[in-house]
Amino acid sequence: MTKALRLLMIEDSASLAEVYKAYLPDEQYQVVTVDSLGRAHATYGAFQPDIVLLDIQLPDGNGMDFLAEIQAMKNPAQIIVMTAHGTSEMAVEAIQMGAFDFLTKPFDAARLRVTLDNAASQLRLGKQVRDLALRERDGYGDFIGKSTAMQSVYRTIDSLAASDATGFIVGESGTGKELAAEAVHQHSERRDKAFIAINCGAIPGELMESELFGHVKGAFTGASSNREGAASVANGGTLFLDEICEMSLELQKKLLRFIQTGTFRKVGSNELEKVDVRFVCATNRDPILEVREGRFREDLFYRLHVVPVRLPPLRERDDDVLLIARCFLSVFSERENKVFRGFSEKAEEAIRHYAWPGNVRQLQNAMHQLVVLNNGDRVEHSMLPHEVTSGQLEVESSVLSAVAIKPRANASASDNLHEADHVARREQIEPLWLTEKNAIESAIDVCSGNINQAAGLLEVSPSTIYRKLQGWKKMRA
């Protein structure tokens, strides 16, 4: 049953207020009436109405002033202005100030109901729009993060899970590709069936076909009994093929046939079996490049690449790194019987500025390491792993400075001519430090000032950029 809308009626005529109230069905509206602006102010905050019926001429003031005050509030009620002294100019003014509609007295039940129904529809639409805009989740499945990049991932998983389409997850190592696949499964109608994951890069090629399709007894040396493969076990559920680009071309051919027909044969068997599985695959490589280089079948790629899901690296996820670090710190502190409760400001800065090339997996290991090796209630900067505090994985470049060359008094003409040529060449070549400075500043501009994202595009640690910016600032000083 739809919840009754709260209606505040501001009408100084008690008889008219009763008439208007009688026009409205009790199951649709919860009505509170007041006869002055003073009582309206006192009631509005406590009642929190969805709709306000506002008379203009009131004993203690003009209703237009009340309209202006309500419109200045966050998420104001829908206001319908009513008056017996209406003019077109007043109606226009009220609408311009934010009123939803304008009623001229006298009006009948039908007119009031239509106006209120329209206001109610507008309220519902506005709520839906706000819900969509504010639907920023702190996590999804086993993911932790509320960055803009992850909100996009969550929405894509929502859409993918609602269908039976194949998902193709791309992301660097450690970004959580299997978590994304599990989230797709858990939010789909197949959630009560099996989720089976195969790492195509971890299983030797000669065993991969058996792992995927199963085998019969005697199919090969060591096959002492029949064995069900992942395809059979995942029947009705989801089959996740991780690192799909590692699969051999011969097996890719068989996988393509399986995807197209839903049928397969166990290794060593002539019997055709049919299953119903939903495919999700993932890779940390560039699949387009793999196709171009001939390592991945083009027809298989287009069969699998139905709904792409890109998992952003940790360096593109803003302050998600701190949310995840705090979660890991809590988990490992409890596991190791430690009492860590948070990070010092300097430690947080180091965590935020480091590029985390190993992504969430590296962050998880770093948090476990510092909990095991240290004690205290707060993580200090010195407790963090060396690569985080020193930027050990940074890509450094030499800094060259232009040096003015003056002719030597005792030099020969040819020597001086050689040095003059050197100066001329020097004027045509930009010093490496300046080239680097221009590249970094350009990347920061492209990323709208987000240094973490700029660092990711330049493939350096954010701390490298911060240090160099500081160095250039000192040079200017």
Biggest sheet, strands in spatial order? 2-1-3-6-7
Shape: extended
| CATH domain class name of the largest domain | Alpha Beta
**First-residue to last-residue Cα separation:** 69 Å
In short:
The modification 4-aspartylphosphate is found at residue 55. This protein has 477 residues and is an alpha/beta fold.
Question: How would you describe what is shown here?
Answer:
The protein is α/β, with parallel strands linked by helices and 477 residues long. The protein folds into 4 domains: 5-133, Response regulator (Rossmann fold, 3-Layer(aba) Sandwich); 140-310, Rossmann fold (3-Layer(aba) Sandwich), CATH 3.40.50; 315-390, Orthogonal Bundle (Helicase, Ruva Protein, domain 3); 413-476, Arc Repressor Mutant, subunit A (Orthogonal Bundle). It has 20 helices and 20 strands. Strands 2-1-3-6-7 form a 5-stranded parallel sheet, with helices on both faces. Helix 1 links the parallel strand 1 and strand 2 (29-34). Helix 6 packs across helix 7 (177-186) and helix 19 (451-458) crosses helix 20. It is extended. Residues 143-372 form the Sigma-54 factor interaction domain.
